[in-house]
Amino acid sequence: MWPFHPRNSRLLTRGKQKFTITSMKAHEFYEKIKSDNMSGASDILDAIVEGIAELDEGELTEFISLLPQTHPSMAPILNLWDRLDRVLAAGGGRDQLLEVASAYLAEIRRSRSDVVAKAVKLIAPCERIITISRSSLVERALQQKAMLKPFELIVAESRPQREGISLAEAMSQLEAVRVTLVVDVAAVFFVQESDCVVVGADAVTPEWVVNKVGTYALALAAKHYSKPTFVLASIDKFTDERTSKMLTFVEHSPDEIMPNAPFKIRNIYFDKTPIEWGRVVS
Length: 282
Description:
The chain is an alpha/beta fold. The protein has two domains: 4-110, no CATH class; 115-281, Translation initiation factor eif-2b, domain 2 (Rossmann fold, 3-Layer(aba) Sandwich), CATH 3.40.50.10470. It is 41% helix and 17% strand. The chain contains ten helices and twelve strands. The strands form three sheets. A six-stranded parallel beta sheet has the order 4-3-2-5-8-12, with helices on both faces. The chain has a three-stranded mixed beta sheet with strand order 1-9-10, with no helix packed on it. Strands 6-7-11 form a three-stranded antiparallel beta sheet, with helices on one face. Helix 2 runs antiparallel to helix 5 (94-123) and helix 8 (184-190) packs parallel to helix 9. The longest helix has 30 residues, at 94-123. The model is unreliable at 4-23 (pLDDT under 50).
């Protein structure tokens, strides 16, 4: 079992977080990335690669040392750190660091497109799909499916930040998609009425898929009802021996669930699902 660590988190405006980086210092940028509790791993990685280009060499080196602490449950962040740390260990400077980060992001973007194309084909027969949270890969696949055939989408709200609502709002703008929003616990009930479960991933290890808490329950229900679960994961979501050991579940502020509660609250964002319960699309 990966360890849990407490962390104070700040609630941000609902929606995908965007950063404007001007004369950014390492600790400022670190706090902006760390405090983004709404965006998925892919969007956060994009923001990091864009933002580090605004750091001078000293600030960049400092930020890289802090990077694993921003989102230790997200493989893309740990994998980026691993590559940059190896450049530093070999004596590389700012230009080489930025080149490696840019090349890695380009490789990831190609992988994302491949995953979406494969996913659209796999979910083509599904007339009723259920998902949780707001994976950018899942959203892209659903958008492309909507251009081919109408379907129904059931979205779990994804507590505590409820980013599933923003996905439901975005998908409801598409005429071909009939959207239903449900609370997380109720989502399990609706699996039996769905054709497939489609989720993203924040990390994929040889044994587990790490994703927004509630994914385990959806996949378990799908297994029970003999419904397929598709896990969309680009190359950056897969850990190696080094980064697997760094994966950590973080506990967030209890105030996100209930401010000033007279009892203990445990607030986690991620769970881990046995990899054999679903089909990883990569």
